Amino acid sequence: MTRSNLVLTSLLFFILKGVSCATFTFVNKCSYTVWPGILGNPVLDSTGFELANGNSRSFQAPAGWSGRFWGRTGCNFDSTGHGSCATADCGSGEVQCNGAGATPPATLAEFTLGSISGSATQDFYDVSLVDGYNLQMIVEVSGGSGDCRTTGCVDDLNRRCPTELMVEGGGGCRSACEAFGTPEYCCKGEFDSPSTCQPTAYSQVFKTACPRSYSYAYDDATSTFTCTDANYVITFCPSLPSGKVTKGLMRPTNGSESDPLKEFFSNSSLYADLAAGNSIGIDHFSLKLIFILFIIYFTHISFFGM
């Protein structure tokens, strides 16, 4: 190959690479600082950073990039950047994770970007609770084509967490695998296949609250999404999105009000059941409808004496 052809080939490669890259934007809507962690190949511009309340930061990833993002909370780093985090710590002892992953429990956003050529041009993405949960997170798509749906976990699972899975202090909810370590919960050994590894009562707690998130290892059918030529926004502690993306995402239950009606609705799994297609959701709906009619009836009696 001549020198001119080599230069031309290199230029075309970088042009195609630039066109096919994806932008990841992190947004912090929590009332506290979050320290996102990044693990992927190839390595992006950062492997961990501080993101204050209300702030955002963006990174570009090349075609074919594969990795995961998560949010660390309760971090304490000194002036030299050394320290640790209360949840989802990566164990590096620094703000940068330097190739280390999150210590469970951690809410994870996972991506495999499509290549610039060949058949694998789609991006695959999901939000996983297989390693447990530590904070609310959603992934929203900007641009792109295909079934580019919003996914994630809007519900505050720390408030729903079964006692035996709860992290001391309430900062996270462990997976049953981490808590008990048995093959049926970890999908290992004789349970390491889609036919033998089935949902458990514990994974159903996660799935009911967050129907579009992975709740156990083989929860692919309702938890993996695809898109082509898109950019992505990862939001920590999101408010409930409006419009078409609300279906399948749970309204957060982090309000402090003691209104019994509000608690009755916010603590129910109705929205999740309907989104996931569970028949029990219809029963809940009927009960709620009866409850509402009951209140209306007696309110009517109180006002009109009928």
UniProtKB/TrEMBL annotation:
Transmembrane spans: 285-305
Cleaved signal peptide residues: 1-21
Annotated InterPro entries: Osmotin/thaumatin-like_sf, Thaumatin, Thaumatin_CS
UniProt xrefs under Gene3D superfamilies: Thaumatin
Keyword Chloroplast: no
Alphabetized SUPFAM superfamilies for the sequence: Osmotin, thaumatin-like protein
Protein known as: Thaumatin-like protein 1
Provenance organism: Lactuca virosa
